[in-house]
Amino acid sequence: MMCVPLVASEGQVLGVLQIDTVDPRHRFNRDDLEVLASVACQAAVAVENAQLHEIALRDQLLRTELAQGRRVQKAFLPSSSPELAGYDFFAFYEPANHLGGDYYDYIPLSGGRLAVMLGDVSGKGTPAALLMAKLSAEARYCLAIEPSLNTAISRLNNVFSDDSWEGRFVT
């Protein structure tokens, strides 16, 4: 039997190549070991390249998912500013990372009124973006079902003040 390690370019062992013979009269010699070591070097390069390719594919998938998440998150934000006599609105949104927890919305209310919602979810990234999506839905819901702004905001506050948010909050 002969064994040689599969050694990556950084020196870590990826595995072992082992070759056996069933014929005890034909033992392996030094030349056989050199051939096996050469094959092991090529195999280690192939394994390392396959691992790098897998990492690249995962990274590409992550970038694609983040880009899709960014588009979904932007869809939660208003696509245009409201028209309201005597007021001009301007909004710009650019998260620190691919996704973020900043939130704004213009929500029409009864009697020609307009709620201007502005929020910032603690943290960054996907968890903040998901909480922002929840905030968007809950804010619209609370304002739609409660005739009083005070009651609507109290109800919204109650949604986000239980213990299940594990230290996350919205201002």
> Would you tell me the overall average pLDDT?
90
Count of DSSP-assigned helices: 3
Radius of gyration: 30 Å
How would you sum up the major sheet? 2 strands, antiparallel
Helix and strand run: EEHEEHH
Structural class: alpha+beta
How would you describe this protein?
The protein has three helices and four strands. With 171 residues, it is α+β, with helices and mostly antiparallel strands. Helix 2 runs antiparallel to helix 3 (149-160). The termini are far apart. 12% of the residues are buried.
Give structural attributes:
171 residues, two-stranded antiparallel sheet
Short description:
The chain is built from three helices and four strands, in the order ββαββαα.
Topology:
Elements: E1 2-7, E2 13-19, H1 30-76, E3 102-108, E4 114-120, H2 125-145, H3 149-160
Antiparallel strand pairs: 1-2, 3-4
Helix pairs in contact: 2-3
